[in-house]
Amino acid sequence: MAHISDEIETSRSEASKAIVDVDEYRRQRRARLERIGKWLMPLIVLALMLWMWNRIVTVNEIPHYILPDPALVITTLAADISLLWNALLVTLRITLLALAVAVIGGVGLAVIFTQSRFVEMSLFPYAVILQVTPVISIAPLIFIYVDNRTVGLLLCAWIVAFFPVLSNTTLGLNSVDHNLRDLFRIYGANRWQELVHLRLPSALPYFLGGLRIAGGLALIGAVVAEYVAGTGGINSGLAFTILEAGYRLNIPRMFAALLLIAGTGVLIFLILSLLSHLLLHKWHESAVKREA
Q1: pLDDT tens across 104-128, in order?
Q2: Are residues 49 and 97 in the same domain?
Q3: What is the DSSP string of 76-108?
Q4: What is the CA radius of gyration of the chain?
Q5: How far is it, in rounded angstroms, from Cα 94 to Cα 160?
Q6: Residue 99 is part of which domain span?
């Protein structure tokens, strides 16, 4: 009887192990498919969109000065890369400067808000007003009162990028677990120690979320400001390149410039997402990978 019982237990153990192995295989297969699909599916959609674009242009015989073929856009991008690259560098410089100023100003003001409730109540409504006012409506005033074109462009881009950093960082600094705050106070921590060792680390995920939003908005603000400024020359950005191409009916160059702007926005988002992952993946729930 004991021998039969051992055989039964062995069979059950082998059956359980087989079930576990099957489940593990399915989990790994699903994870592998998700990793592949994350990159493959967008590429398939892009290929379908380009094919439909090409078919619409070809079948309807649309002239290139109305809607160019995707291949013509790529050819124009390669042919005009020197001009477009220089314009991109101008726009990108304004974007990065505006983002840097937005980070410094947004984080600094958020810290002041958490240290003084009266300052937050006094200034935060004006930050909201600045955010909800379309930058294209106040940009002409900025360029009237600011003589330096670069400073004017920087101000316009900063206005757009500033609020997400301020709002998210303030939210993060105010979202600290009250039990941890009480613990810090029990051990006699002062406000500076609480800020550095508790509030700022807790607010880091919120700040990085606002930073990803602000990166794209800074690029949008820079392009809009260049449209309003409307100045050309050697130091003109991609917005003026688009305007000039439109005046000349050089629609392929317009699409090439738009492609550069979109690609730059995606690149900024990917870089900031990578930064967020590097800073959070070891400890924060939003970035820590869990087994399914």
Answers
A1: 999 999 999 988 889 989 999 998 8
A2: no
A3: HHHHTHHHHHHHHHHHHHHHHHHHHHHHHHHHH
A4: 27
A5: 13
A6: 70-280
